[in-house]
Amino acid sequence: MTDAIRPLDDLRVLDLTHYYNGPYATMLLAYLGADVIKIESPNSGDGARPLYRPSGKPFGIPFALMNSNKRAITLNLKALEGCDLFKRMIAKADVVVENFAAGTMDKLGLGYEVLREINPRLIYASGTGYGLTGPNRNLPAFDPVVQANSGVMALTGAMDGPPYKAGPAVVDILGAVHLCAGMLAAIRQRDRTGKGLMVELSLQESSIPSLATHMGAYGIGLRQLRDGNRASGSAIIPYNAYPAVDGWVMILAADDERWPRLCRVMGQPELATDARFATLALRVKIATNATG
Question: Could you say which of 35, 143, 172, 227 is catalytic?
């Protein structure tokens, strides 16, 4: 986003988040122009700081990637003086964001109900693993753990192999984007009403939309577990990573309009008019029979 278009440049955000999920959400706000102040404990700081840190450097690439465009301070919220200073900052803030374990801010005496009394226009955003309420609220919530609990791991890997986590931190980033969207909506609502509100997003609920294909397959009675690089239930053919002379190529012809284009690209245009492969349903049937 260019300097000429910074829609959030009149907002101040207090960022109490750590690791990937919360910091990425607040970084998106910073990219939109918000003045984001990252607040870390003077004792431990953000746990992502030392991850993959080169020798002699203060932090590694993951921390830099999730925290660019921010200012930073240290503040001990477990000390009375630190709490008092934080409350004074809250009085001048627009948004505060945290992704601590459920109930942490309340234990510090800095929960939403306390902070809204200081600043009725405050938007309080909380990112958790499984929500602020419910039986799973206190379960650990790092990205791979939520992948396992949400079903993402059950759907990842080869059909005859064990479940695998997705390589990238997909759940953390999905949760961050949802959390950012929630904050933007809350800002819009405050513009209308003049009143702040609370935004709550969990990593688990943010990951559910990514399972849409497999839920759809389950709904019509198709296999919905691990299918490797193929479509769930092999409902789309071709859809896979195929070996080539110089590596691998991912091919996905999702409908009958794309099938003739793929045939031309492969240098076999005659397949596009072959009656055996004329429709997606026929291609799926042939592939299913061929693989048993």
Answer: 172
